[in-house]
Design brief:
CATH class: Alpha Beta
Radius of gyration: 19 Å
Bound molecules: NADP nicotinamide-adenine-dinucleotide phosphate
Shape: globular
Structural class: alpha/beta
Number of helices: 9
Order of helices and strands: EHEHEHEHEEHEEEHEEHEHH
CATH superfamily: NAD(P)-binding Rossmann-like Domain
Length: about 280
Amino acid sequence: MKIFITGGAGQLGYDLIKELTKRGFNDYLAPTIDELDITNLSELKKVITDYNPDVIYHLAAYTAVDKAEENKELCYKINVSGTENICTCAKLTNSKVVYISTDYVFQGNKDGIYDVLDEPNPVNYYGYTKYLGEECVKKLKDYLIVRISWVFGINGNNFIKTMLRLASEKDELSVVSDQIGSPTYTKDLARLLVDMIETKKTGIYHATNEGYTSWYEFAKYIFDESNIKIKLNGIKTSEYKTLAKRPLNSRLSKDKLDEENLLRLPSWQDATKRFLEELKEEK
Ligand SMILES: NC(=O)c1ccc[n+]([C@@H]2O[C@H](COP(=O)([O-])OP(=O)(O)OC[C@H]3O[C@@H](n4cnc5c(N)ncnc54)[C@H](OP(=O)(O)O)[C@@H]3O)[C@@H](O)[C@H]2O)c1
């Protein structure tokens, strides 16, 4: 199977490539942004038609959620026009597209857990562009849309690394306690993303580590597991101003994974423990 990857140098891309290689998928092409910019359609067409992949994992995105509110043009260009370009190429080569999306396609005001079939209503500009990307991918014959949330992995900046850094600089921290969702460890997600193409799945999925928590509880768990003593205060979203709005309810239903006989990801606590080990090994 020939696999083309965008965003291979990013947080998720790093673990996806490791997982693919581990499982014997060695025929892949993962150009960096310097080698190939997805907003350049003519170059993209040339590279993708030459390579002729069976599957395109489309991970590349403008991911600076707050900055996106001020840099709308660039965010749109990468997340919407870039994804349209990927779809144009996928049609030429008849490739399956695996598009990674986000909980931010939802407003976060639902009483219950978000199902894959719930109508999106993006909470911020980044979420809006990711939603437009979904709409484009949905027009393809063979696609997967995988919505994820609260991502952490060794090859990127994320909440766990930020908490550990802040704890080394301060002895008191305030963390939002009224946003509920699920962390997603890129190593665990990579396993599922490869399972999905092996078993030729299609359609929309939600994939995160199991269990729901708040950022405050997540931070508390990180500090407890790391034996870090710090005064931790839970605060409300309204007390923590950000340029982009965040959803209060990011709970995503993973029932479709069971229905399609796909293995769920381990609990977020288990994932966090393993990530902290991975961080230690890296040092
Ligand atoms: N991180 C999260 O919490 C989260 C949550 C939900 C969904 N997602 C989605 O998950 C996917 C992977 O996220 P991630 O955390 O791995 O993101 P990431 O670390 O920011 O990686 C994104 C990659 O895309 C590349 N890229 C950006 N613009 C590009 C362009 N025009 N052409 C080619 N490559 C380009 C970036 O290169 P440079 O770094 O050199 O710019 C980077 O290597 C994204 O689609 C994101 O929307 C992420």
